[in-house]
Amino acid sequence: MTHPAVPTAATARRRVPARQGSLREHNLALVLRHVLDAAGATAPGAETPPSRADVATATGLTRGAVSALVDLLIGARLVDELPPVVTARAGRPAVPLVPARGTVVGLGAEVNVDYIGVRALDLAGQVLAHRETAGDYRHSDPAAVLALLAGLVGQVRADLPASARVAGMCLALPGLVDRVTGPLRLAPNLGWRDVDVVALLTAHPEVDGLPVRLANEANLAARAEARAGAAGQSFLYVSGEVGIGAAVVLDGEVFAGRHGWSGELGHTVVDQQGPRCTCGARGCLEQYAGKDALLRAAGRDVEEPVEALLAAVAAGDERAARALRSAGEALGVALANFVNLVDVETVVLGGIYAPLAPWLTDAVTAQLRSRVLASAWAQARVGVAAGGPHAAMTGAAVVVLRAVADDPAAWLGAPAGA
Amino acid sequence: MTHPAVPTAATARRRVPARQGSLREHNLALVLRHVLDAAGATAPGAETPPSRADVATATGLTRGAVSALVDLLIGARLVDELPPVVTARAGRPAVPLVPARGTVVGLGAEVNVDYIGVRALDLAGQVLAHRETAGDYRHSDPAAVLALLAGLVGQVRADLPASARVAGMCLALPGLVDRVTGPLRLAPNLGWRDVDVVALLTAHPEVDGLPVRLANEANLAARAEARAGAAGQSFLYVSGEVGIGAAVVLDGEVFAGRHGWSGELGHTVVDQQGPRCTCGARGCLEQYAGKDALLRAAGRDVEEPVEALLAAVAAGDERAARALRSAGEALGVALANFVNLVDVETVVLGGIYAPLAPWLTDAVTAQLRSRVLASAWAQARVGVAAGGPHAAMTGAAVVVLRAVADDPAAWLGAPAGA
DNA sequence: GAGAGTTTGTCTTGTCAGTGAACTTATACG
DNA sequence: CGTATAAGTTCACTGACAAGACAAACTCTC
Question: I want to staple B239 with a disulfide (CB 3.0 to 4.6 A). Which of A159, B191, B245, B300 is the partner?
Fold first, then answer.
């Protein structure tokens, strides 16, 4: 016996003793969660925001306890009261509770091949400010690009109302990122390798003092997708660009893996004898369904936007249609392999695959049906990303805000203003 | 805005209010966990089991609190005191605390292609009883096989000491199993399809009244492997048999996927134009590296045990060596795809791959090195399973015991005896 | 329009599981 | 045999929630 007899669940793995205060922290987060969820889940204007009493019945806490907790959240400016609403119903009117607007904001940023940008979201999910700059950042100098980005951060912060406190910043990058604040390991299409992005960024006064974390672009876009909720809570997000990234979401959680390097779908092998890839191996999916490969196969220039390809295939260009079919097939094989290994409900096509979805879905679906062992019981759905064009930035901001939502107790004593 | 503004972590996703009692439950589990871990983690007889004071300093609870909790655990017969040990040190001697033996037991069972079996483990990790029956269960009748299994359960229970309380039973099956107690969907090599195993099993008096859960064989073997701890806490377990299963373990947790169907590595595509597989697709890994395919490629009979192949290759049989090399290569490609998608530290070779590992590891390692994008920073290790021959059964019993360890509060008032 | 009925939110008391510090117990050492 | 030291116990105190009474604000009915 040189091993623990009985391992324990991850929940109990947090080897932290529970004190009285732990109850507060937990229930505070529980109440805040309920207010945030309810604000999002409203069918078009239908339900009113929950009152203290609603939260009490929904969570199982007593009205007294909820009252105390809500008062703390209001004091921390995480929650706001709306004026009591006329309900035409007996009894004292309820005070609706909503996420506070413009008080706590998360900064989501992105550096990608053809643009950089920053946006600020508040707890209500509102975009308070947004700046982006188009450009060509292939093989760029990290310091120069990050100086530009810091400038955008400064502009966004200047646009924020005085009441706003910036909780932190998260930066989306198209490459391998060590978990949390580790350095960027490799971003092939930017030409960046082993760059200490956080240090370069926090050297600028616009960013200094802000907690900064990094994450993979596809991971963050997947997070935005999970928030959009269309895909359920268990899906594989595929981000098609020049490279092909992916992120697994299981029960609403993005799965980053041991180092945070999960999701390199583009370097899945489709054919061992296939063409050589930039990564050194042969027959990677990127060579069949990456943006460059796809445009080339369709007989178009690599620099063209996908819209050109879309127009061509809509106009009846047979070569373009063939290119899309074969890309869809390769993608389908890779995704079927994946779904055999990691059982997800839905495959969400994002990036350039979102607009191209009408010409890809059938081929992908067919591969999933024929190659996934469990498909007889639960065929994986193929969906289209609903996270919008700035999904990664939005996801990045959401990551920051989630940290606040998960631990509101840490914000109780925080001062106003940025 | 038709979505929650800020999603929350899975930990807070348990929408349960924390009451005073929650502290007890949590800290009770915390203390028990510490005692169980310490009992396992002992280097060869070196450290003595922890005392109440040790637990207090390790967990951060006060000695008073730990004392109260330990007394409850002793009362529930989950923990035992050993006689105070002479330490040749000033001060009152400590009372060592160890997991109770022979009091709470978990039943782990397995139905596989060539044997069925049942074993009983207690909290200390001791095997209290074990029965197995060899046989050929290809294309067998589920009811008949499960009747045999129920018989073994009866024998094992009869072998248990009178003090033992059976906490539950978990059954390992080589196929797709719905999460928790759902029906067995498909076990290709048993020829079972959509069988309500739990109902068939609990119909027998030997099993009646026992909570029974099912799980995939590879998942449970991976759990036993995680317990053995040799592979770290983040690995991919590969179970090579006639079929090839796999299970992902991340941070010590087995990852079952949406329905619990993750890990069908055997039906990963290695070559789209390859030979047709029993599942209907072409070029599945099983056709290259499954037990039958491997033996056939080595020019041996499918019915032979792998030991024969081992002997042949050790004796210099060139054809056998070639078969192993090419199987290793195919396995390596499939595993490299996987590691690109799900970033794990280690790949653990189990099942028939464990004894064959010396002839497979090089080929697999080479594929991982050349095909995994992140391999320049953290090459995934290739290891050999240490869980032993009955890994799945052990893992199944551990699953049952873990449920007890995670919620000792539920066992406080439990009566003695089975 | 006054009172009954209803629902929301607050307030008070009781309970429970921690903390902290004194206290008891059991050993080693000079 | 007294002193030092460490383990384990006990008890007053505290913080957080439950339970239920109470106050507030509104509708409905007679």
Answer: B245
